[in-house]
Amino acid sequence: MKSLEKITEKITSWIGTPISIVFHTIVFVGIFMLKLFGISIDQILLILTTAVSLEAIYLAIFIQMSVNKNALTIAGVEKDIDDIQEDIEDISEDIEDISEDVEDINDDDDDEMIKTIKDIEKRMVKLHKEIIDIKSTPRGN
Q1: pLDDT of residue 45
Q2: 141 lies in a domain?
Q3: 20 lies in which domain range?
């Protein structure tokens, strides 16, 4: 069954080439050249009509096979895209969580910095009072 699939894939690929156009042109001209061998035009047209009809049937089959194969490929790609979208959503959620954590850390740092500044301010006020006390204390000369 695999070898039949490979053959049909090769035929399908070949049909869409310039060589296929040349081949078909030669075959159709060859059919009309049967007139040179004494075959009547009615018989030639019958042969041509039959050949073209059979070829159309096979082309339709090859086209449907290509469509089916592409549909499977597209379904696989759609599945991959869905998986990627889910991964992106998960990553986005992780980024949001990390951003919140960073904000919390920054908020904690801000609170700690404010505490430190207030503590420094209290110490400076205390030192200022001590300096004033020292200045106002009479010195023994």
Answers
A1: 94
A2: no
A3: 2-136
Q: How many whole angstroms separate alpha carbon 27 and alpha carbon 120?
A: 100
Question: What is the C-alpha separation between 10 and 17, in angstroms, rounded?
Answer: 11
Q: Is residue 27 part of a domain?
A: yes
Token pair 């700690």: residue: 112
Please tell me whether the overall predicted TM-score, pTM, comes out greater than 0.70 for this model. no
The number of folded domains in the chain is: 1
Residue indicated by tokens 């205390």: 126
- Confidence category of residue 140, pLDDT binned at 50, 70, 90: low
Residue 36 burial by CB count (10 A; 0-12/13-18/19+): exposed, middle or buried?
exposed
Instruction: Please provide residue 16's backbone torsions phi and psi, each rounded to the nearest 5 degrees.
Output: -90, 25
Q: Annotate 99-127 with b (16+ C-beta within 10 A) or e (fewer).
A: eeeeeeeeeeeeeeeeeeeeeeeeeeeee
Residue 95 or residue 106, greater confidence? 95
